[in-house]
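Lab meeting, item 3. Inverse folding demo.
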């Protein structure tokens, strides 16, 4: 029987080759988390991991939901931001799990954005060699990307997400109402990941973003979130651990974006860094003849419309380049990029020397004063 408030829930399931199953409920009120956890995990105890900003807004409600469902609940709160994604923070949360007596049949529940889901998922993957994990993402970026797919990680000071594991959540509760308290900047950084999905496989999604003011019409977002989740779920089901290369398409904008994010902390959020990364990597595609210049024009126009950063000339490329060599996708010292061929289509595994990539990025075609694009001479898509 369908509970009140669940009449518009979209259920998307990830079934991987390892036979792990993740149920993603888009449109489900987070107040249902406790009942759903009891049904899917049968845990007696739960540790809710959140940050100090999100916990008063939504963490307490999830704690109440779990307690009402008969689960003994504890909470761990971290400081907001990427700098909390460390081995030290993971060790501290593991200690809380141990002192509170969490067993292999118990569960960790992440309530928050991408930092929280990455960190809590990583702890769940290593504590007692792996316990159940559920996510209640409260940011747009986490709802469409970070909480979906089973990638968990912490950072090193000079490299992002290099200590991690694949650990699928049992359950992801995506409540659109949680976005009502999200500041505009956080909404925009989530839209950067939505743009990514459009660029890698859904040209119609890019077209919708070009003509719809999503920050004014937030009701439109539920369908967009479901579309992004469905796309990622399909990719992850076929290539969960990035062995065939198919999942690599999801890294568009992230090779350069991660380097920018770490080099410029705390200037850019993750989504803002990915926006810059997409712009830079599309310019690499233009210069290598993989796509026409108008693909870059269209992407830059969309990023500007969404008030996301796009101008690579504003980045300290020397600082970013120093972090590129630590990217997880480096093979035999060469960078691997996902480069667009058209809006809605990309190619994976484009290898490039770091010096070549930086040289091309220094030739960024937008003039600082007029912000107009200089078409590269002689470049045509192959």
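The presenter then showed the designed sequence:
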């Amino acid at each position: 029987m369908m509970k009140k408030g669940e009449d518009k829930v979209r259920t998307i399931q990830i079934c991987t080759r390892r036979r792990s199953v993740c149920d993603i409920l888009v449109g489900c009120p987070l107040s249902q988390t406790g009942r759903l956890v009891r049904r899917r995990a049968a845990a007696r105890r739960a540790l809710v991991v959140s940050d100090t900003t999100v916990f008063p807004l939504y963490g307490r409600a999830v704690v109440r939901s779990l307690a009402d469902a008969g689960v003994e609940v504890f909470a761990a709160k971290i400081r907001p931001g990427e700098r909390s994604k460390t081995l030290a923070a993971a060790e501290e949360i593991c200690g809380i799990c141990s002192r509170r007596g969490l067993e292999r049949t118990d569960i960790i529940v992440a309530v928050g954005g991408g930092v929280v889901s990455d960190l809590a998922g990583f702890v769940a993957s290593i504590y007692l060699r792996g316990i159940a994990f559920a996510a209640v993402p409260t940011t747009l970026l986490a709802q469409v990307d970070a909480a979906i797919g089973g990638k968990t990680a912490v950072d090193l000071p000079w490299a992002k997400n290099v200590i991690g594991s694949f650990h699928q959540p049992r359950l992801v509760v995506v409540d659109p109402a949680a976005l009502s308290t999200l500041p505009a900047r956080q909404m925009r950084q989530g839209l950067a990941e939505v743009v990514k999905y459009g660029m890698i496989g859904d040209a119609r999604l890019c077209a919708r973003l070009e003509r719809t003011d999503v920050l004014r019409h937030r009701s439109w977002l539920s369908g967009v979130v479901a579309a992004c989740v469905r796309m990622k779920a399909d990719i992850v089901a076929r290539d969960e651990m990035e062995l065939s290369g198919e999942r690599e398409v999801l890294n568009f904008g992230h090779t350069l974006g991660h380097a920018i994010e770490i080099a410029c902390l705390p200037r850019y959020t993750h989504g803002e860094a990915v926006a810059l990364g997409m712009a830079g990597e599309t310019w690499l595609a233009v210069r290598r003849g993989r796509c026409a210049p108008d693909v870059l024009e269209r992407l830059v126009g969309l990023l500007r419309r969404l008030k996301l950063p796009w101008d690579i000339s504003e980045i300290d490329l020397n600082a970013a380049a120093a972090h590129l060599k630590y990217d997880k996708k480096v093979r035999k010292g060469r960078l691997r990029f996902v480069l667009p061929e058209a809006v809605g289509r990309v190619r994976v595994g484009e290898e490039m020397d770091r010096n070549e990539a930086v040289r091309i990025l220094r030739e960024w075609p937008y003039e600082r004063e007029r912000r107009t694009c200089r078409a590269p001479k002689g470049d045509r898509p192959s």
